[in-house]
Amino acid sequence: MTIYALFNISFMIAAPLIGKLGDRIGRPHIVVLSYLTYLVMSLGFAFATTKWQLILLFVLYGVFYSIDEAQSKAFIPDVERERRGTAIGVYNFVTGMIYLPASLIAGALWAAHPRIVFILAAFLSLAAINVFVFLRPAWQRESVADKGSATISVPQ
User: What is 46-84 written as a DSSP string?
Assistant: First the structure.
């Protein structure tokens, strides 16, 4: 029970700080930070062997969740300015549709070996970072440039 309290406390403390950071450096950077945090957290859970490591990982999970809950969703209107409500609805629909098969796959992998679930999650997070950074559309360069923030530097 205490470990979930730490998760919620870290979420509560990190959320406004991440929000301010996102306003300062731009949400695309925070979305990448979210994927990196998830990657580190997943690998941590895959290889954790002590109680203190699990406690630290749950704190990190709270930080990740604060990014995911606020900044990732705040990023959607940056992408689709004209149909924000529709874009948020489609995002929630698609993620909801993905959760069921993802949970079934994770459950099957967990039955084989729990570590596999976390390693797969880390791999998918790394793939998401690459897709987000290297296949970024023109709107990202324009919307971030409009705000005066630096864009994510990648080879063109």
Answer: HH--SHHHHHHHHHHHHHHHHIIIIIIHHHHHHH-STTH
Task: Record the pTM.
Answer: 0.80
7-to-24, 63, 155 alpha-carbon distances in Å: 25, 8, 37
> What DSSP letter does each residue of 135-152 carry, written as one string?
T--HHHHHHHHHTTPPPP
Taken in order of first residue, the domains within the chain and their CATH numbers are: 2-146 (1.20.1250.20)
pLDDT tens digits for range 13-56: 999 999 899 889 888 888 889 999 999 999 999 999 999 999 99
